């Protein structure tokens, strides 16, 4: 093989190993003025580990659902025994990378991933499995972090699972089966769960908490839900704008259609009835959003549509903080200002960003700490939680994004 001019000659190949370093003469203190010498100690990596890593690299480059070559052929390709390849494949199945189907073969699973060891510490009470959607949302991350801290305080071993959009949830159940003392499962919000998966979750026999809403919750014996009071959220958002004298209002549903959104709309309609405002006068966008899409971008697109359709709009009710940030951009792009021309009210907290936008965003929030504490209490004390639905009330936080038109009309 040729090499570039000036490049050093390649060293002879060596077996793969993991080097560790330790000082020579570690049993005695170094003498003043002396140089400390280090000895490189190579820790050999087993052939099975090398094959596993190489096979993983191959899997990552292939599409979900691809069928692998037969086990015997894989063993020949990687130069290992059949028994070694069997053990490698078994490990990758347990870790959720592969799925074996009797009579069909071995297939690449969706990129669901386990983020914690399922090994149970000696003193741990048991495992808590937490499944979250495989996309970044600060509110989901914050909830996951709070759950992890709460679980640690309760001496629980947390097993985190990221669920891919194409997942059939098989990886979650395989992971649950591998737990030695599974105490419960928490499904983080934002994750559409098929009815077949809900039935299997119910049949695990452990408490299951879905952070969010669920249709027909009474069908299930072991499933509970913990959610924000979305009816109250919609009511407070609409009421706040109507109280401030806004009568030309647009609605930005920047999150996907869901039970939560339906409840929010019911709350908005209740405020509309109280203030004798006509629901049909509410300005709606043409576009909608699907699960796993960008709510910030959608908030911007929907706000553009509303402002173009009704230039006289003075207030926007926006689903969530990311959508409100997108709406702020749409307002500025249209040559208007917030709150001077268009007021904005939204829901949730998003890493405190809502306090530092310009203007800062008025919002309604539910306590994340209370949501997580309630979920953990259900897992730890299932016999004391007779209710199937737990709803956490909202609180209105007034900031700079709402203009009080009534105050300006007073003489």
UniProtKB/TrEMBL annotation:
Question: Does the UniProt entry include the keyword Transcription regulation?
Answer: yes
- Sorted alphabetically, which keywords does the UniProt record give? DNA-binding, Transcription, Transcription regulation
Specify residue ranges for compositional bias: Polar residues. Answer: 15-31
What residues does the HTH gntR-type domain cover? Answer: 41-111
Q: Name one Pfam family in it.
A: GntR
Does this entry carry the keyword ATP-binding? no
The GO molecular function terms of this record are: DNA-binding transcription factor activity; transcription cis-regulatory region binding
Where in this protein does the record put region Disordered? 1-34
- Designated name of the protein: GntR family transcriptional regulator
Tell me the classification of the organism that encodes this protein.
Bacteria, Pseudomonadati, Lentisphaerota, Lentisphaeria, Victivallales
